Amino acid sequence: MQAGKGSEEDWKEHAVAMRLVYSHSLVNIAAARAESGADGAFTSRSETYLRPCHVSWKRPVGVPNTAADPFWTIRRAERHQSQSLRTSPLYTRGWVVQERFLAPRVLHFGKDRIYWECAGIGLVEESFPTGFKTSCPEYDTNVSWAFDLIDKTPQTEHGESLTQSDFHWIWSRWQDVINGYTGCDLSFPDKDILYAIAGIAEKFGQHFDHQYVAGLFHQHLPFDLLWQNKGERSEDYRAPTWSWASIDGQVHFTVEDCPYCDTCCNRFATVKDVRVDLVNEKMVYGPVSQAKLMLTGYLWPCRIEPAQQVGTGLRQRIDIHWNASCEDLPPDGSLSHRNPIYWKIASGEQYPRLSSPPSDNSVIWGEADIDDEDDSIAGFSNKGHFEAWAVPIMEFKVPSKTRYANHWGLLVKKIANDSYQRLGIYRVENHIMHRILADKTSTQQDICVV
Q: What span, in angstroms and rounded, lies between the C-alpha atoms of 254 and 247?
């Protein structure tokens, strides 16, 4: 179904009403394989392609035969059917995301098979009509679509409150939905980006006190400011720079069983205030006209240095001067005499480790992800570096050698009236805050990000 076209007010009314249409339906039938209305739902396919392939294997000699011989199941389709379905033509469209999510049951006509999805059984298809987990009990499925969230409420059926791990799971599923949604297409993103996911956001909002601020939930801040950008910032204002909704293209939250939170992380910034002006005050989950975020935290000057391009070329080395002001920075940008806390840069090269640390250890070397190409290129072409400010957000409590980075923060640039705009994020391999806090040189301040 599609919202009717007419006056702007009619469109807004229909856009809000569509979430009720989906959620109160009996079943939603989706021609997922169709590129257009001319393609239809059905397609020819080979019966053998749909038939499961089980390969039995004998137990090793000496192993008790306490159960039936085990077997391998070979799947011709992708390992996780959820991902296969997500890449279907229909589900590349942004407005369809909440159509799938809010409907209590969906019958999907895919490119080579039919899928059934509901809260009771999850996602199944013709080869495994009772579910792959049922056919192969030892298989640990990794379908992350939060379909059964529809039946979750803040209170369980026995009147008990959801546990912290339940809320972490729901939080992770919200991040996963945003990852998928921002990778979809919208014909009019400046108008639609918050409308087209408002129904899903409202569903999640019942678990988070409906404190929704420009695409993020207040209680997830400041951790959810650490999204990574794979697109470009919109030229027209539709959301503050700290919101994923300001980006044309996919953004990425690192989805884990436990999101970045106070359970696993030490936070170094707190939210003092968030102010959001809505286009329509009655639509908490709708578009915004302006917003500002007031953080209390550390604000460190830094230089973003050009490095060998990787991907978009927006991943660069960053040198953070945690105990200096911008006036104290070397005018030529030369930082080779400083003590590196982090040696790795985007190209995979490493700076040589020093046999003995120099006396000056006021610079931290990290890695920056710049949101917008214009910011990166403009800074590098003018000066050979780009001046910015680093706002440390968090560090993991338990160090890990396998983790890509242990320290994460926000990068901002200063604009008029003592306000800042997001430039991107940065990360540092090692834990750094214990040394900085022990020095007591750096102090916290209020930081207004718009």
A: 17
Task: Determine the Cα–Cα distance for residues 442 and 342; give it in Å rounded to an integer.
Answer: 20
By CB neighbour count within 10 A (0-12 exposed, 13-18 middle, 19+ buried), where does 282 fall?
exposed
Cα(354)–Cα(426) distance, integer angstroms: 23
3-class state of residue 270 by DSSP: strand
Q: Which of 369, 372, 375, 378 is nearest to 232 (CA)?
A: 372
pLDDT exceeds cutoff 90 at 227: yes
- DSSP tag of 161: B
| Tokens found for residue 156 | 């369980």
Q: What is the mean pLDDT of the chain?
A: 77
Q: What is the mean pLDDT of residues 95-118?
A: 88
Task: Write out pLDDT tens, residues 358-370.
Answer: 344 677 888 888 8
The answer to which of 30-39, 142-151, 197-206 has the lowest mean pLDDT is 142-151
CA–CA–CA angle 325, 345, 225 (5° rounding)? 60
Res. 332: pLDDT tops 50: no
Where do the structural domains in the chain lie, given as residue ranges? Answer: 8-151, 210-450
Query: Under 8 Å CB-to-CB from 184, ≥6 apart: which residues?
Result: 91, 92, 93, 94, 96, 97
The answer to whether 381 and 304 are in contact (CB under 8 A) is no
The full DSSP string for 164-198 is HHHHHHHHHHHHHHHHHHHTSB-SSHHHHTTGGGH
Tell which residue, 220, 232, 229, 234, has the closest CA to residue 252: 229
Place of tokens 């690192």: 254
pLDDT tens for residues 169-190?
Answer: 888 889 989 998 999 999 999 9
Q: Distance (Å, rounded) from C-alpha 64 to C-alpha 81?
A: 35
Q: Using CA atoms, how far apart are residues 210 and 193, in angstroms rounded to an integer? A: 19
Task: Enumerate the H helices of 330-447 as residue ranges.
Answer: 373-383, 433-439
Neighbour count for residue 89 (Cβ, 10 Å): 15
Torsional sign, CA 240, 244, 245, 246: positive
Query: Is the distance from CB of 269 to CB of 298 less than 8 angstroms?
Result: yes
Peptide bond into 240 cis (omega under 30): no
Most confident option among 53-57, 222-226, 368-372:
222-226
Examine the pLDDT at 404 and tell me if it is beyond 70. yes
Q: What is the pTM of this model?
A: 0.81
Distance CA(31)–CA(36), nearest Å, equals: 9
pLDDT bracket for residue 403 (50, 70, 90): confident
Tokens of 256: 């884990």
| Angle of CA points 273, 319, 228, to nearest 5° | 50
Task: Measure the CA–CA gap between 149 and 140, rounded to whole angstroms.
Answer: 20
